[in-house]
Specification:
heterodimer, A: 543 residues, alpha/beta, seven-stranded mixed sheet, four-stranded antiparallel sheet, 11 helices, globular, B: mainly alpha, 49% helix
């Protein structure tokens, strides 16, 4: 065991949440040490991993990010006891995330929908779920700061913005143009009364931003932007180091240590040689998102905190959420040619809102804009065609198939719970076990609302065939687990993502979100991180 | 001891250098393979490789890379014990039909092992992989023929073909001519 006094603030995790907080603290003059479980790799290595993967598995993002033995993350080829995530329940909480320096924004799409005011008041307005600890007006300035920090482009026309409430500042870049297929999809949606609007996205639109180049339509945002036109947290690490941050990699934090005052005193980690280390500090931030944070807190139980650190409420690991999605794969006569431009570039958001939310979930619809070759080539080959017929079939299937995705909200349910499995990883640490059921609220939406809408859209597209996912798939938007609230008896963190139980412990990110809405969670995670960062700066100043 | 992170730029520079050197090697290899397939990277008998490319050119009427062909031939050697006999058998059928394109003789290949092998060869060229499974051998990504069939409108993912925000264009009808490749 090596003990080392480290820095004013110790941040566990180097994903986007940890990175934005680190920069706030460095800019405020505090020393920062960041601890990352996984490796630090170059963009070129990730790109080559993906290019060298077989065509049939290129849809699996994990092929670009092989996990290290000491820092396992979900890999598509691992099943049963071998898998990192041990799953049970009617639905599978099969997430992907990356334990690499830079975290999971390596492979996010960059989609950045804000919550609406209504999304934050589900209990008050619709009698379901939870209200947030604060309202939209409180969060709005942090959204603006997020949009400027990450470089989020979006429309300047209020009619095309989401949500449909006044913004306090414009997006830093204009929205990206639609591909021809998206233009056609938008026209078709309009005939049904739906508005397919440009998505706000963390992608440089028409210009460089933050030292990164403009998007040139590599159509590979997921699993990695080869040129870093899309924001990912890896792009900020070098800048943080220039500002004085120390970043430890291949260092797996396994224990949060409390002292007699029940403040956090230190964190303990393993290196990749299984040697243990201890780092102390004045204030600690857990920025490992909704799965690793609760796992670490539960692993850290001690005499003062017998249910785990920050867990006097027994809510750590509960309320696991995501955006359960159903995909309609349509075959059309008309070519749409998905794959021109970024992989997600638009969406129908208005279907996420309405008084129906007292009865069932809303849904957001998007036209997936991935080039289709990888999805259709083997299907065409299996038809036994050769010569010109084969060429024409691949071309037709690439042009005339498309995925329409309905992403749903779920309610926080304490029974959707992460616990520590009796299965262990390479270091001997328990794997996370997650029991998950999307719930009747979401299932009813699929039955009476989202799939009927999806089918109408498919019909309007002239679909000759529609294949619908047989079950809900996960969106990899990990939420819940360390839920926020004003009542310490039923929540883990307060409105600044400070642990109710420990005044010098902050747990910002998706785990704190009290509702999911339907849009991707990252922008809200970052807004919460910036809000927490402000609170940390104040707290360090003694305010 | 506590370790500090390495500056990835050093790694990146090494990687770039490695990529450049590797690219130069690959390029040289491709040139050599183009000029003389027997010098290709694959450890496959020259006669066998020649036969494999002959068969490939009978099954697929497009420009085929000898370097990629060498890799597929190597994969075929490992996968098919009686590869020489199958190559000979299918080539004989094509020659008997005086075939100039696959449509002239493909129907005459007997169902079973021979037909399955012919389809495997075609699939390898179009997908760049030995199968659709996770453990497939990758022969090529960028030169997989599937991408050639759509090269007039779609990028190969991870390679950009347009400038900033320059992808607005009219959609192509299916009747648009197939790219030449």
């Amino acid at each position: 065991m090596v003990t080392k006094t480290s820095a004013d603030v110790v941040i566990v995790g180097t994903g986007v949440v940890g990175v934005v907080i680190a920069e706030q603290l460095l800019d405020a003059g505090h020393s920062v040490l960041m601890i990352e479980a996984g490796p630090r790799v170059s963009r070129a290595e990730v790109v080559e991993n993906w290019r060298n993967a077989p065509l049939g598995v290129k849809g699996d993002t994990s092929v670009a990010y092989p996990s290290r033995p000491w820092a396992p993350h979900p890999m598509g080829n691992e099943k049963g006891d071998e898998a990192y995530l041990q799953l049970s329940g009617p639905d599978s909480y099969a997430q992907t995330f990356i334990r690499y320096a830079g975290g999971s924004t390596w492979h996010w799409a960059g989609t950045s929908w804000r919550l609406t005011p209504e999304d934050m008041r589900l209990k008050s307005l619709y009698g379901v779920g939870r209200d947030w600890a604060f309202d939209y007006d409180t969060l709005e300035p942090y959204y603006v700061r997020t949009e400027n920090k990450l470089g989020i482009c979006g429309p300047s026309d209020p009619a095309l913005q989401w949500p449909r409430v006044a913004r306090s500042a414009p997006y830093p870049m204009p929205h990206l143009p639609f591909s021809p297929g998206e233009e056609r999809f938008t026209e078709i949606a309009r005939t049904l009364g739906y508005n397919n609007i440009p998505v706000a996205q963390a992608r440089n639109s028409g210009m460089p931003y933050d030292g990164r180049p403009a998007c040139c339509a590599n159509n590979n945002c997921v699993p990695v932007c080869p040129v870093a036109a899309k924001y990912d947290a890896e792009t900020a690490l070098h800048r943080l180091e220039k500002k004085g941050a120390t970043i430890l990699v291949d260092s797996v934090v396994y224990k949060v240590e409390t002292n007699a005052q029940n403040k956090i005193e230190a964190v303990h980690f393993y290196d990749q040689h299984k040697e243990t280390h201890r780092i102390d500090g004045k204030l600690f931030v857990l920025a490992c998102n909704g799965l690793e944070n609760p796992k670490l807190l539960l692993m850290s139980k001690d005499d003062r905190n017998p249910n785990g650190v920050a867990n006097s409420s027994d809510q750590v690991g509960r309320n696991m959420m995501d955006h359960p999605q159903l995909t309609l794969t349509v075959t059309t006569k008309e070519p749409f040619w998905s794959g021109i431009g970024p992989v997600v570039n638009s969406g129908i958001m208005e279907t996420s809102q309405g008084s129906f939310r007292s009865e069932h979930a809303g849904a957001y619809f998007r036209y997936n804009n991935f080039a289709r070759n990888r999805f259709v080539t083997f299907a065409a080959l299996k038809k036994g065609l050769v010569g010109k017929a084969l060429d024409e079939e691949i071309r037709r299937m690439t042009a005339c198939t498309a995925d329409i995705v309905a992403a749903h909200e779920v309610l926080p349910d304490p029974n959707n719970r992460l616990t520590l499995s009796d299965k262990t990883d390479w270091l001997g640490l328990p794997k996370p076990h997650i029991h998950y059921d999307v719930g009747e609220y979401t299932r009813k939406s699929a039955e009476v609302y989202s799939l009927p809408i999806g089918k109408r859209i498919a019909e309007a597209m002239g679909a000759t065939d529609v294949k619908i996912s047989p079950k809900f798939n996960q969106s990899k938007h990990i939420m819940g687990g360390t839920i926020m609230g004003n009542d310490a008896s039923n929540s883990v963190v307060d409105a600044d993502c400070r642990a109710h139980d420990h005044e010098n412990l902050f747990i910002p990110g998706g785990g704190a979100m009290a509702s999911t809405a339907c849009g991707n969670s990252t922008i809200t995670m970052v807004a919460l991180a910036i809000k927490a960062g402000d609170a940390i700066v104040d707290q360090m100043r003694g305010a | 001891m506590t370790r500090q992170s390495k500056d990835p730029n050093g790694t990146l520079m090494m990687s770039r250098r490695g990529i450049l050197l590797g690219g130069a090697t690959l390029f040289a290899g491709s040139i050599a393979a183009s000029l003389c397939p027997t010098l290709s990277l694959a450890a496959v008998d020259a006669g066998m490789q020649g036969q494999f490319m002959k068969l490939s050119n009978l099954l697929i009427q497009h420009q085929l890379s000898p370097a990629v062909g060498a890799r597929i031939a190597e994969g075929a050697t490992a996968q098919y014990k009686n590869l020489p006999q199958m190559l000979e058998a299918i080539i004989t059928i094509a020659e008997k039909n005086k075939a100039t394109q696959v449509e002239d003789f493909f129907a005459d290949i007997p169902e079973g092992e021979l037909k399955d092998f012919a389809l495997w060869v075609i699939a390898a060229w179009y997908s760049g992989s030995s199968s659709d499974k996770r453990d497939a051998t990758v022969f090529t990504y960028e030169e997989a023929l599937t991408f050639k069939t759509t090269s007039d409108i779609l990028t190969i993912p991870s390679y950009g073909i347009s400038g900033p925000n320059l992808w607005t264009r009219p959609n192509l009808p299916l009747s648009a001519p197939m790219p030449t490749f």
